[in-house]
Amino acid sequence: MEFTTYLSLILAAAGAGVVNALAGGGTLLTFPALTAIVPAVVANGTSTVALMPGSFASILGYRRELQKVRRWAAILCLPSIVGGLLGVELVIRFPNYFDKLVPWLILIATMMFIAQPLVARIARTGHKPWPTWLALLVQFLISIYGGYFGAGMGIVMLAVYAFMGMPDIHTMNAVKTVQAVVINVVAAIGFIRVNLVVWQYSLIMAVAAIIGGYYGAHYGRRLNRSVVRGIVIGIGLTLSAFYFGKRYFT
């Protein structure tokens, strides 16, 4: 049983690394795998910590783009920190509500993943830039969700950044990556502080996710991203249906 447990977690984390490198949405693989063996709130903390190391490498990949949007990357960090702290605090203080929201959270994350192509189209159209105060407020709200659960928050951030006057999708991705790391670090610290991380699972999953992310990025051109997206969407919809059935019909 122990071997199959670790094998399922390693495969889920490696798959999450590949998916994150190609399309995003890796949490939709790691979180459900963990809920099969630990409570949902612990699965959330363990998944967050497991996938966090791989996100740091992404920042290095956007070094050039970050030079163009250093101001936005810097000023958005404060609402990301405050919102992330509030989100993780809500999980810690009200774990029973988190359990009840799991089916909805997975469904919302899947819907945001489905909307990703629309986000890309929005990013290519011109809009009058939002004022700074509005950008900070929206980033704060996104960060609350990010600290609470996080799956799909990057897609929402891209949609928002399209309205903030950033020059192109690559610079938006650079800012999004920085903010995602900030939110995930804040969330991880909060989960670690109250022992909501199963370290023997999280560490081995982190290694698997890094390896999956490396090979996902390395061989990404050979894979059909539409197929990868379709698989993740199918998994997300199936899991949300399963959790809704488990929650409301059993």
Structural notes for this entry:
The protein is built from 13 helices and no strands. It is mostly helical and 250 residues long. It has one domain. The protein starts with a helix and ends with a helix.
Q: Could you name the ranges where pLDDT drops below 50 across 5 or more consecutive residues?
A: none
Share of helical residues: over 70%
Oligomer: single chain
Structural class: mainly alpha
Number of beta-strand segments: 0
* Rg, nearest Å: 17 Å
Q: What is the overall number of helices?
A: 13
SSE blueprint:
Layout lengths: L1 H21 L4 H9 L4 H22 L1 H6 L1 H6 L1 H17 L1 H20 L1 H8 L8 H17 L4 H9 L7 H25 L5 H20 L6 H24 L2
Helix pairs in contact: 1-2, 1-12, 2-3, 3-11, 3-12, 6-9, 6-11, 7-13, 8-10, 9-10, 9-11, 10-11
Characteristic terms for this protein:
250 residues; 0% strand
Characterize this entry briefly.
This protein is mainly alpha-helical. The protein contains 13 helices and no strands.
